[in-house]
Amino acid sequence: GSQYLWVVNESTILKIILEVIFTSKCARTRSGFPFWFTSEPQDTMAVRGGLALLNCSAHSDSAVARVEWKKDGTFMTLASDERRKLLADGSLLISQVVHSKHNKPDEGTYQCVATIDNLGSISSRVARLSVSCSLVDTEATVAAHIQVLPCDINPDLAPFTRWEKDRQSLELGSRLVQLPSGALLISNASESDAGQYRCLVENVGQTKASEEAQLQLTPGKHSERKPEFLVLPTAVTKVVDTGVLLLPCAATGFPTPSVRWMLNDKVLDESLLISNLTEEDAGLYTCVAHNGIDNSTVHAQALLTVQAPPQFVKRPANIYAHESMDIIFQCEVTGSPAPTIKWVKNGDAVIPSDYFKIVREHNLQVLGLVKSDEGFYQCLAENDAGNIQASAQLIILEHGVANPMGPAPSAPRDVVASLVSTRFIKLTWRPPAEPHGDDLTYSVFYSQEGTSRERVLNTSRPGEMQVTIQNLMPDTKYRFRVVAHNSNGAGESSAALPVATQAEVQVPGPAPSLQAVANTPTSVSLSWDTPLTGNGEILIYKLYYTDQSLGTEEDLETDTLSYTMNGLKKFTEYSFRVVAYNKHGPGVSTQDVNVRTLSDVPSSPPQNLSLEVQNSKSIMLRWQPPPPGTQNGEILGYKIRYRKGTRKSEAAEITRDTNLYLLIDGLERGTEYTFRVSAATLNGTGPATEWNTAETFESDLDETQVPDIPSSLHVRPLVNSIVVSWTPPENQDIVVRGYSIGYGIGSPHAQTIKLDYKQRYYSIDNLDASSHYVITLKAFNKVGEGIPVYESAITRPQSVPDPSPMLPPVGVQASVLSHDTIKVTWADNSLPKNQKITDARYYTVRWKTNIPANTKMKTANTTSLNYMVTGLKPNTLYEFTVMITKGRRSSGWSMTAQGTTFETIPSSAPKDVTVVSKEGKPRTIIVNWQPPSEANGKITGYIIYYSTDVNAEVHDWVIEPVVGNRLTHQIQELTLDTAYYFKIQARNSKGMGPMSEAVQFRTPKSKEEVTSTPFALGFNWTNIPPGSLNVYQYIYHQGSTSHETALAAPAPPRKRAASKSTNGSHKYKGNSKDLKPPDLWIHHERLELKPMDKSPDPNPAMTDTPIPRSSQDITPADSGLDSVTHLQSVAQTRPSPPRGEQHPPGKGKGGFVMRLGFDPISTQSSPDDWFALLRTPSLGETCAPDPSPFHWGVVIGQTRVSVITLMICYLYVPEPMFHGRCVVIFSSFVYYLGLGMYKGADPFVVL
């Protein structure tokens, strides 16, 4: 098939929209007529009186082509020619070749031309027909030891020559050699070589033989003779890959001389035989003969020239365009010698003119298209080794009907030429009186007076109302008109404005010999000569330069013939031109000269470095290259440095390719490593990323269960494919061996694809258009497949290629700049190579974070190819995607890019700070707290400040540092009966956060009085295994009332040994993660019990509670059970009033003791026990189970997994014993619905 290039004018923007590959099944509409040669004539050798056939055949699906022939560039008349006939397929047959010394009518060059009426013509390559001469009899030459028998024939027939001796075919070898001329060389001749010799020509018409020659050797007396050449080497010109080449060299003398070949001081074979000839074999060869007489040596040289026929590097592509546009047919060829290029349109040579120009050596530019320019254009390349041709079709498109969606603009007003020079004119205008829309764009049409060929130039951005038309002819009249465009299409044209350029007799000519040389990565030196036609004194030179990546031209002035540009971008291509000025104004500009600044080390580190712990001994690193503007050269590889913990010694790994990942293995188990990556160019290594930390697993990943569900799945439907991308499961502790994608129309089970675990995207191809597909993604390992994530998508409808499809942005990258800012960049494939935006399109950037999971998407619009997203949360992973909108059309969303904001100092203080005395140690207190709500990174420690003066300066407070994420700390040796104030400050890798509010605590007056705070009690059960119970009891005061609390929690398994830490907490060792005792703080000040009806549902929803769930484990300062046992024994010895005894009115206040039992494996309770019965008793009420429906429940994590059943007993206690206080006893049993503790849960029980 052929390649078709569409060029359309939509909303005044000239764009290359679409390249479509047409096959033989494509619709043959106005969109194209495939037309090409299936065979072309080749160079042919013929014999006088014989036949000659030149092949030619053309193919077209639309019509039958008419074939004609040219000989030596002139069409042949074959109708009345009896010897030369045109065959049915278009080939030319010459029945009897005529050739004589003075009449050679058939020898020459031939070319066939195929034509389809009303469409155009194409020409074949040029072929040469040669005719051989008659044979001349051979003669014998007699010599002592070397015989040369010539065969005098046409050199073209030498390849068809063979020799016979005594009418028998002669077998050639190292002693018998046939020379390129056809002659026979016999070395070391002996009597056995005597006989009758003749040469024959075969396979070219009738076989012909020469007369026989007698070879005789005469014995004689030999005397010493210096060497002399019998066969001299001659210059040879050959084409590459033309078989075997023999360079002969034969010398005579006595003794027999030795002969050798040399090329660049390298000794070669005696007879130089070269097979598979290449361009590297070309050069000057020297033949050296020597026989030792007087050290005589003779030399002869032969130049071997190797030619390569033309070959296409880039063929011209078919082009679709509107009238008035400028187009370029590209054609790039190689060959040796350098091929010459000529262009042909419909079989006729294209003659360069003002509108047909050869640009960049070989390309054909057509300016201001008109209908008559339509047809077939051919690029013909030729050198001495051969010629080739390639064709392309130009089709002029009709302008479409106006968009019925709305009115188009009226004509622009007040079009004037504000600046007129010799070769350019600047036009300005005012907007239309009726624009019918915003952001108008404009097209300026202009033509030379007296011609019908009109060209168009578009404004560079919406709303711009001026344009400069360059490259005009001096002293020439032009006509200009302007058309406005809105979203509905092109509007009315302004009236034609005639303007004449100035004469150029007084301005300077172009400055010759403009050269640009890159000196450094940021500077270029330029030099030029004085214009040959200065037309007076040169006042200044204006140097224009353009950054090719931006497309914006700037200028500066100088009065010298050289200038050094500094401050340029590194490794960036620039174009330069110079204009000389005299007193009459600017002269003729030079041609553009392009140069690229030198490369340098990257100025930015790689982006988005991420670490993935693979197992206990390896970590995978992934990253993105530095931003394009900071690479400063071609990235050749990356350098990875890593170290163990905070050690200063480093190890390094260097990648020799541009892979964006590396697996570091051989690491130690359960060890923290830090990594950083830097990019390297030819000049060296650039800056490295920040150190990133990861810790290898204590043991290899778990593969006893299937992987979790993938954390995200994204789909992007196309016409016949769907691009799927995803992120791995959040739980990285389970091995993922790969991913399984299922898909199908309406069901995901029709097709299944297995992918490697490293893959993060896949394109599902060969789908039906306009079909609804369901897609599943599952992670799998050796155990099996995990839970699938579902997504659906409808493929796009099959339609005629849109002249301007809205393709989504590509290369989306998220560059993290700070703790709250990420810069998102992308590329737009629908823009030119310089990525210059010249229309009213805009881009929508969308971003979100998955924490929390229901976070809403945020969006922002921009008209540039990047956007700075600010106001983000620190230390948070965000996903970004971009789409394009132009008018009423939008692209799909791009592939996602991810970036994690940097950490910053905590922005809030630790919360829920409480202080309690340690039982039995009145001079020791325990400080407990919760992490800050806005940690902004991983908390690495805390600082506790305490003082007896709340108003003291901060530097006067005593400091107690706490390392790690512990949430409790003991302070010892305090003064009794003294008020202390406590503040806590959190820190992370970036620094310290704010201090908490001061909390006051007074130490006891004596060792016997130990009290606890009444302000915050709560408990948090985390990682509680099934097993026995511990009972925790707390006594606290509220006013004059003392409260006693007994809380039950599971004790650790008996088989595990416990070791006491320095702060009194217990740490349980085992194969899994360490277990911590439960947090038993009850937030009493926020305790709330609400009555509710008992639900008949056996699985009712849990009761809402105002108490927030905690996300941190808190280790009590003292988890010993001695005090618990003591309190239990005391409680058992206290007297209880008899049942039914009433409490004396006004004697004491209500209090309570809570006892919570834990029975995780009991299954005997009924659904009615899933809610507790609770009612606050009145004073004097008898102790009995309360049947009142007062319900409440327990929530663990985000899942209801347990409930508590309570029985109430109101107990009267004599005042002398308990100072008038009463006790309510709660008996509770916790039932787990899930047969044991849910692993990894973070339950929080609220009363």
TrEMBL record:
Spell out the InterPro entries in the cross-references: FN3_dom (IPR003961), FN3_sf (IPR036116), Ig-like_dom (IPR007110), Ig-like_dom_sf (IPR036179), Ig-like_fold (IPR013783), Ig_I-set (IPR013098), Ig_sub (IPR003599), Ig_sub2 (IPR003598)
Q: Locations of Basic and acidic residues compositional bias?
A: 1071-1096
Major location, coarse class?
Answer: membrane
Chain ranges of the Ig-like domain: 34-132, 149-216, 227-305, 310-395
Locate the region Disordered. Answer: 1045-1149
GO biological process: one example = cell-cell adhesion
| Matches recorded under PROSITE patterns | FN3 (PS50853), IG_LIKE (PS50835)
Name listed for the protein in its UniProt record: Neogenin
Q: Which organism is it from?
A: Gadus morhua (Atlantic cod)
